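hey team, just a heads up i'm posting the complex here instead of the shared drive bc the drive is being weird again. everything in one block, sequence lines first with there labels, then the predicted structure for the whole assembly after. its two chains so it's a bit long, scroll down
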Amino acid sequence: GNSVTQMEGPVTLSEEAFLTINCTYTATGYPSLFWYVQYPGEGLQLLLKATKADDKGSNKGFEATYRKETTSFHLEKGSVQVSDSAVYFCALTGRVIQGAQKLVFGQGTRLTINP
Amino acid sequence: GAVVSQHPSRVICKSGTSVKIECRSLDFQATTMFWYRQFPKQSLMLMATSNEGSKATYEQGVEKDKFLINHASLTLSTLTVTSAHPEDSSFYICSARTQGRGTIYFGEGSWLTVV
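-- predicted structure starts here --
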């Protein structure tokens, strides 16, 4: 079945550092790919998405490109801030259940940014 | 924006008792809701998918008699953990899918500790 593998955390960086969180996937067909972010004490929020090969999703300075040839969707940000500290989840759409597509998540990567 | 609220955010219960977790969509109607479980340092695992007014679809390996899901209205789904045991201690998170575009929003999650 479909699966997602994320870079293991935790990741600790200094403010203004460059961030990469790796995500690779296994899927049949052509899934959509997502990055979700979970700030402390809050639910998951959609950060960005890409629905087809070579698409680039971007939001709040974060970017990720759907690479079908390498089955990857790595998350990047050029200059991180303390407020980016959170847990990041890579996900893809899987099979349809009761008319809704199931999301398959990676294990999450905890990111801590130090001032 | 759309908000999904879970209650309680933290609950401690004794072994053998039942505990109910509520998931509410506060400003939209959700025909489909999802319940996930997250073990420490692991991914979110989908437990079940429910559509309002119909029986939930459980993922393989999830005991439907233990994890009772009720989606009685378009804004409320409940997860009841029956005869709880310490191994049921986990982080439970719900998501709700809007009608139309079908955007998914997550609740803030509920920590369950069974002692």
